[in-house]
Design brief:
single chain; mainly alpha
């Protein structure tokens, strides 16, 4: 899978979704919902940027291709679950979507800790 391309797409989506929130939703959402939406964009953007960086690490030999695939898949899953649930919560007001958000957070945590583990295991690179 071309994780760099997926990261680029997710980064573009973060910009577009953020711009939509800033311009299209201003005045349509209350301050609380807009804050949730902005948090979703922030985490979406940071983790898509992280995905781009991680996708390059196997190419330079810092981690294995398998390790890179795992971390990239978890970061993508985290974006979908964490940011996706917050986007949905902010736009619909259906609070049960908030129950999905921690699973995305766990995917983010798992991704970053797995990356740290594989970087520590491969100190010569």
């Amino acid at each position: 899978m071309n994780w760099s391309a997926i990261a680029a797409i997710l980064l573009g989506l973060a910009v577009g979704i953020g711009a939509f929130g800033a311009h299209g939703l201003k005045g349509r959402l209350d301050a609380y919902s807009l804050g949730i939406y902005e948090k979703a964009v922030l985490y979406h953007f940071f983790h898509a940027l992280g995905l781009l960086v991680v996708s390059i690490l196997p190419r330079v030999g810092a981690i294995s291709r398998s390790a890179g695939t795992w971390v990239c898949a978890l970061l993508s899953t985290g974006i979908l679950l964490f940011s996706g649930s917050l986007y949905t919560l902010a736009l619909t007001g259906v609070t049960t979507w908030g129950a999905v958000t921690p699973f995305g957070g766990l995917a983010f945590l798992w991704a970053w800790f797995m990356l740290a583990y594989w970087l520590i295991r491969n100190p010569s690179k």
